[in-house]
Design goal:
Largest interface: A-B, 25 and 24 residues
Helix content of chain A: 55-70%
Distance between the termini of chain A: 15 Å
Organism (chain A): Riccia fluitans
Family (chain A): Belongs to the ALG6/ALG8 glucosyltransferase family.
Shape of chain A: globular
Radius of gyration of chain A: 24 Å
Distance between the termini of chain B: 36 Å
Oligomer: heterodimer
Order of helices and strands of chain A: HHHHHHHHHHHHHHHHHHHHHH
Structural class of chain A: mainly alpha
Largest sheet of chain A: none
Number of strands of chain A: 0
Strand content of chain B: under 5%
Largest sheet of chain B: none
Keywords (chain A): Endoplasmic reticulum, Glycosyltransferase, Membrane, Signal, Transferase, Transmembrane, Transmembrane helix
Helix content of chain B: 55-70%
Protein name (chain A): Alpha-1,3-glucosyltransferase
Number of strands of chain B: 0
Number of helices of chain A: 22
Shape of chain B: globular
Main location (chain A): endoplasmic reticulum
Chain lengths: 536, 486
Amino acid sequence: MWTSDLSDLLWMVSISTCVKVLLVPSYHSTDFEVHRHWMAITNSLPVKEWYNDETSEWTLDYPPFFAWFERLLAVFASRVDPRMVDLVEGLNYATDTVILFQRSTVIAADCVLYWGLWRFCRKFTAEKQRLLYAAVVFSPGLFMVDHIHFQYNGFLLGILLLSLSCLREGRNVTGGFWFAVLVCYKHLFAVAGPVYFVYLLRHYCRGTSWFWNFMRLGSTVITVVGLAFGPFVYYGQMGQVLKRLFPFGRGLCHAYWAPNFWALYNTVDKVLSIVLRKLGKDIPGPKAAMTGGLVGDSSGHAVLPNVTPAITAMLVLLAMLPCLVRIWRRPRRSEVVQWVVYAYTCGYVFGWHVHEKAALHFVVPLSLLIADSVDAAGDFLFTSTVSYYSLFPLLFKSREYPIKVSLLLLYVFVMGIYLPHYFGNLSPDNLSNTCVESEEPDESTSDKSRSGTRWTMISSLQEVELLGTCRKLYLCGLLPLEIYSQLLHPYLFKDRLPFLPLMLVSVYCSVGLFYAWAKQLSACFNQPKPDIHFQM
Amino acid sequence: MGPPDFQHKGRATSRNIKLEKAKEKERANAAAVKSDHTVEWSWPYTSRYRSTCFLVLGFAFLLRYLVSLHSYSGAGTPPKFGDYEAQRHWMEITVNTPVEDWYRNTTDNDLTYWGLDYPPLTAYQSFVHGSVIEALQPEAVALHTSRGFESPSSKMLMRWTVLSSDVLLFFPAVLWFINEFYSDYREKQRVWALAMVLLHPALMLIDHGHFQYNCISLGLAIAGAAAVVSKRELWACVLFPLSLNHKQMSAYYAPAFFAHLLGRCFQKNNLYKSTIAFVKLGVTVILTFAVCWWPFSESKETALQVLSRLAPMQRGIYEDYVANFWCGTAMVFKWKQLFPMAFLAKLALGTTVSACLPSMVQQIYAPSRKGFLYSMLNCSLAFYFFSYQVHEKSVLLPIIPASLLAIEEPQVLQWKLPTWFVAVSVSGAAVLHLMYFRLHPPRKYPFLFEALIMAYTFAHFVPLALYTNWKQWLLPKDTPVKQKLT
């Protein structure tokens, strides 16, 4: 049985690997040099110097496990070309060999993603597996961020998938272990910490042996974290490490505003300041704030109150609160993926200095939910299209333009064709399993009305409507937006107002993603799904 | 009340028959869907045929674009660079010199440096592309000064000229062909057929990696084949000569087109009608040629000068290592030393024609849609094996009809042979490939691995050619493709 579904995965992986290999000579961002330099740091310096080194402006600002990962890569790198891992000689060293080597480490590290994906799907039906495989393996975001822009998100998301698959199976300690590992690789993933904490506390640490379970879980997590940070505590460098990991001096928004709540906030602020200035009020000029949007907004807001990191943290927690309450009351493993996704969405929408790449943190796990219901599939198609589109400014060179457009279009096409087909083809038996959450599992509903709902669902599923008119219109709006920012704007304004197209993209996408967040929030108040019993 | 009743009954029975047929079709479809479920992806081919075709086209474009990100042959290697420089130089010449000087050695046109040696349509195409590039980046096609000009932006422009030709000409031609030839096949198979041709790595690598414009001549040839298959013979007589006038290599298909169209003429009721049909076709071909050669027709010398450029006899019967008969036997039989060049040319002509003959005779005698495609494959293989001065890139010409036929002929062309055979063959190729990249050949035979690879592929091609010739002869007089599934 497992050989057949593995062969499906291998087919898709080989197709996507072909594309990745062909992408080797494409544009890479400064992150390429960042990762090369980290290899050099970890290879040339003793552990206690890792977080102190300032040879290059690209200081090590990921947690220790990632540093060790770079150390491992450096072992191979020093055999390929020793200059690559030289602290000083290697600076900005990017020959074809170096590019090929670094690109292939990303491609190889994606194996963890495929492992996590396979583990998550291994108990599903073949059809469902294929759907999820395709949704993750062909994700244009991963191609764009990892294989063009250059990062290791596929690898990290693989660890997240491992953790989620363990939680879904009820292996709470292993799930917690993987999550701790993940956070020690990239601390941005810690946003889901509260969800993990409440869920594990309520789902695992209960019953008669709750105390021992709590101790077991706690010792696992502490061991992992201790392994990662212990050496630095020993050297008395924790303060330095934390300073590197949380550079709050960077400002509320990144150079290009990630399409979140703060993009809307900034826009409202700018519009208000312009309007008030026109009205004759004495408002600090919008010009500084505008360019501030380009270089790393630290100039503050003109009209609206300034935002501090503490406020954003409070907002993220506040946004997560309904979900935490719900998990506290009903910790269910059938829903845990959904809440982790929600936590990352909150972090993205309200977080401090969010980078647009962080969209991957919630879109990729969100794709694991698409086979659950037509509604979830529609939400995914919408959210993924908007957030992948919002990644476009990341690849700003004209050479990569056709690549990002065709990657996104092909993905939307595959999903847009295959999802309705998948739901339209489900037999009634499967439907009752997969779409049960729209029915009420209450005892009060009689069997008769239940079968009634089911039948209406089946007949409506023959013509599956994924998005609905409003969302379709919104997505179609991306096209004129893109045409404006690529063609009309340079034509109309030449070199003036260079930030306007980016701002428009950011604001337009933030409306969509804010909606996606609100939709997920509303799910917190839905009737709960019955817990998974058909597995194992 | 007899007749109306009878009529009614008749109508009812005919309706019944229709219903039954529809039911049968449904059942067949259901069975097909079921088997899809268990074996492979159940992709909604039928309901969303157009979108799925678009998906294939989009993926084909993406792959082509990704290949074009890489380097081309001869990049940064003076003095002659590679085919990229040849094409760029042709743009330089056609944009900056008058038409009659394009094929002539002048002070501005040094024929020893990548002189034009393709037919006029290539020259016009170079002129069009060159004009576009001149408008956007004049220094890339400036006379004399632009030799070996390579900049990231000019490379991207050049790549886009190939990409756009491929998308605007090759893609529609293949779509047309698939929709005509496989019109009675299940949509799923049509999508696969489309993917077989569009995702073929050879064409992608040669056009978008190595740098050439085969997509134009092959696209025109495929469009000609689509016209033949859809019985638009006059269109075929326009499109195929255009292909021939873009790249003389298309002559590999000429016997197939000639034989099939001649056979179709003979199918008419009487000799008079046959002659009329033949004359019509002939006049169309001649007119097409005349239009293509118009600028060079002012004097006999100009035309002859162009012609002499197209047939470079001095190059010898074989060069490098091509998996054909002359190279394959050269290990034991030193053709070049044994015979004079003129004799070898005649010998090559004779063997090529006789290798094409069986396939041609079959098509003259029994022209059919399927047979025509087999004939294209057989004749191009015959040319590849025996003709004079074959380049290894010429293998594209047999590849195209082979991949167009892939759904018809899954055993051989989709490699659905016994597993042990496929395993042995593929691992043999892998071993040869590894040897080629990893081992140093003995000093006495510096080209040992090339020769081995050539012999290995030739050993595969010969049984293939024999098999496809045999298959063509097994075809009935007019293949009832139309009745195959209904």
